[in-house]
Amino acid sequence: MKHPAIQCCGLLLLAVLWSCGAAQGAGGEDACAPGADCLLADACMGDACGAPADLGPLDAPSDTAEEPLPLPACHPNCVAPEGLTWVPLPGGGFTMGCSTGDGDCDLDENPAHGVTLGAFEMLDSEVTEGQFYGVMGFDPSALSLGSDYPVENVTWAQAQAFCVALGGRLPTEAQWEYAARAGGNTKYACGAETACLKDVAWYDHNAGGTKRIVKTKTANAWGLYDLTGNVWEWVADWYDQDYYGVSVRDNPPGPPTGNYRVIRGGAFINYYFVVFLRVSNRFANQPGAASDSLGFRCVRGGGD
């Protein structure tokens, strides 16, 4: 059973420690107050616009999936986001899950299994504060550092709504791992040893305890940046620790229901726990819980 490990109230929380309470949702009380200029008023969770519901048992998925949100095409005053680059990724097959020779894999990364995906496009970087503001009309970031930094402190619903407004969606977990591996099968997206991380990732060893401007590390073989480190990334799938044992091979959509969504990639806080930066690592996060180390990127095509 794997619980979230995210940074909350400025502290790194590990495994099942949620001592600082449920993470505050994006936007805050003012951003989603009645009459406020907020795209996602309907997406706000709880009385404080983002306080998630009490965490339930991780192994007891809910009977029904979330109700679909009403998703407007764009914020009424939105502008076309700058710097969005869609990278076409070829369809193909790969081995998803525990990498060959990786002795740190958790049970939910097994069994390694073959997956075949259709072609799709993915944003070459995490969505930035400026891009999110341009489309959604507000910047939820707890670490609001500038337009070229990754947006964070977003709930799953807010991330999905941004992607839908662009004509896309969040990637499936399989699409995310396929893109991160970029044809490889090593423990880390960049290679078999931690030494390669400094070239491709912002993490605790080099980030100085905060997120960094996107696309300032080396891209992977397919031209994608920051899939390891900087901020965690929401994906579309519900979390099920046993899903890999029953997953279909072709374009797996993930479990039909659940209590938690999957987050991938690790963040600027993950060095002492560098295993979180492994390309097959999976974490479960309550969909209404936001964090200053959790962002996203979008895909389009491949089964929209």
Could you characterize what this model shows?
- The chain has 304 residues and is of the alpha+beta class.
- It has a single domain, classed as paralog of FGE (formylglycine-generating enzyme), CATH 3.90.1580.10.
- Helix content is 12%, strand content 13%.
- The chain has five helices and eleven strands, in the order ββαββββααααβββββ.
- It has a four-stranded mixed sheet. A three-stranded antiparallel sheet has the order 3-6-11, with no helix packed on it. It has a two-stranded antiparallel ribbon with strand order 1-2.
- The protein is globular.
CATH class: Alpha Beta
| Beta-strand fraction estimate | 5-15%
Structural class: alpha+beta
Q: Spell out the CATH superfamily.
A: paralog of FGE (formylglycine-generating enzyme)
CATH topology title = paralog of FGE (formylglycine-generating enzyme)
- How many discrete domains? 1
| Largest sheet properties | 4 strands, mixed
Task: Give the ordered list of helices and strands.
Answer: EEHEEEEHHHHEEEEE
Contiguous low-pLDDT stretches (5 residues minimum) are 3-73
N/C terminus separation: 31 Å
Q: Helical region count?
A: 5
